[in-house]
């Protein structure tokens, strides 16, 4: 009878268990066990380290196995025999659950081998325990992923949103063992699935639900999520971040090869940029140039092409293009390329779905059709830049042109940023460079995470910019600090382009309100218009005529400094001078102190000026380089053109 | 049974060569190399005017005691050489012919990949799979 060996295995306790447990399994089982244990175990006469029977029962039910299987497992693991779920019994039971879910018979022998972790389809254990019924409901809802598309699209929204929200460094460890992405997905999905969903609900309840009108589950799901949201946050970020990667595009567990709605929209837009007719195809050379910008190695790109060009005609139709793009995105995220095209990426699979976003993009279509192609794509970039992912193929041209145009905006941003991070000037410089490169990319990053990957991918003509996703390689300045800073700024920018500059100034402004409120206001407000020349002469006059009273002196000083700022640099000096001003406020205003303050302000202004000048020269350099590259590529193309025709 | 399949470029360097067993790989490489002479001989024998009419399938290039070597040339002077085991007498000519057709089709698919530059070694997994299946299937 199996209970004998089961008992023998379970008897000595966890340490002496005969069944081998991998590290992941150990961790998972101990987590589950502690979860089952900690909330007031109802073991009754059982010793302390035992899982509560009811909680264990809930957990087992959440594994979605039939009841008699669970009975079998309970018997086998020895719990019935000993009367409680000790750690050994619990672990054996978990392993048996995993075996059962893998389709193996419930035998002790079957758990000796390597098994995937047991899947508990409900929310993570806290929720399972406390909302046993609700958890099961959810488990039912989401365990049948292949049955309802609505759920999937909703999950898609979730995952897509999650990806945007939390792109944290833990992703990179995820990339290292890509050999078992499915395993990870399973683990992380189950671990943080509900949490991420509910957390996501809180963050993006309305916009994404509105976006995915096909989701019938939104209503009830929302209600359920809301109830769980409070429980979720404890490990939300961790599970979210780790979960994010495997769910790159997956709605279902274990499926990174499913394209989400947002991704599909993005791919279609990119397709349009290359080939306005959605029913036609992209030629091989055009696609090659486009995908080469992704900076993936050529053999991999070649393989991706092989996979995605199903009809082997040397051209990509829209579904083929989406599949190829998706594979590139997945590869960029560290997934190993499959040997055959996953079913969800087949053109047949994608074809009917690819027509759907046309409805969503109706605005775009009408817009695009009304314009000639070239202008269309340009305008498309500019006007739609806030809403849609950018057309990366045009980035080369646009950023060159727009560099100057956005420099003025950059000043504001840079000024505020410089103030914050004067010690980190070097970071700022590179950040600003990236900012300039990714100004258009920001709305993308807001809406969709993998677009930020495309950022780095497609800006092949100029230094790639760091996408909000931290795991992306940042060619220009790859540092996590930069990412965090960038993310901070993207958060600020998400609401719009303008907020960052006004957002930063209030800080010193606020800090000084205690001392002088209105006078400080003036310098702050003056900062914005400080760049205008007109105000400076008038202020100068005011400076000269002002009597040196305390508040006015401050104004004098700050205005003086502001003037200097205007002459030297934009408003950064204002805020930098104000803190310098502050320490002097309590003391008696003496001209020497004023002078010192002015001098420090001058120094800081000069520093800022130098930084900005350096930045400017760097950007100019970039511009030149990109020009040169472009010319070189064009000449190359000309040279190669006759050769390629075999 | 095909024990070795090779794709030779126009300039007579191998784009792809794969043997079913690894111990005699070098021998097969040598065999393929020497067979190129025969291929060139057959091509030139056709004459310049007959390029259009030239059969792509060259047939048996030469037999040895252990195996037979078959050749096939594409219009772009890319040669396919197949070394087949002599013990498999059931292998008829038209079967070899069809195998070459499959090879040619796969080669065309490789060429359609814009990331493949003509003249590079062939690293396509699809091509590998096809060749492996051919080597397995025929035996």
UniProtKB/TrEMBL annotation, chain A:
It comes from the Eukaryota. CDD domains: EH. GO terms for biological process: endocytosis; endosomal transport. Residues 151-180, 236-256, 440-478, 494-541 are annotated as: Disordered. This is RALBP1 associated Eps domain containing 2. One of its GO terms (molecular function) is calcium ion binding. Residues 170-180, 498-508 have a biased composition (Pro residues). PROSITE patterns: EF_HAND_1, EF_HAND_2, EH. GO terms for cellular component: cytoplasm; plasma membrane. Residues 25-116, 263-347 form the EH domain. The lineage of its organism: Eukaryota, Metazoa, Chordata, Craniata, Vertebrata. Residues 523-537 have a biased composition (Polar residues). Residues 151-166 have a biased composition (Basic and acidic residues). Residues 598-636 form a coiled coil. InterPro entries: EF-hand-dom_pair, EF_Hand_1_Ca_BS, EF_hand_dom, EH_dom. It comes from Chelydra serpentina.
UniProtKB/TrEMBL annotation, chain B:
InterPro entries: Longin-like_dom_sf, Sedlin, TRAPPC2L. One of its GO terms (biological process) is endoplasmic reticulum to Golgi vesicle-mediated transport. It is found in: Cytoplasm, Perinuclear region; Endoplasmic reticulum; Golgi apparatus. The lineage of its organism: Eukaryota, Metazoa, Chordata, Craniata, Vertebrata. Keywords: Cytoplasm, Endoplasmic reticulum, ER-Golgi transport, Golgi apparatus, Transport. Gene3D superfamilies: 3.30.450.70. The keyword Nucleotide-binding does not apply. GO terms for cellular component: endoplasmic reticulum; Golgi apparatus; perinuclear region of cytoplasm. This is Trafficking protein particle complex subunit 2-like protein. The keyword Chloroplast does not apply. It comes from Chelydra serpentina. It comes from the Eukaryota. Belongs to the TRAPP small subunits family. Sedlin subfamily. Pfam families: Sedlin_N.
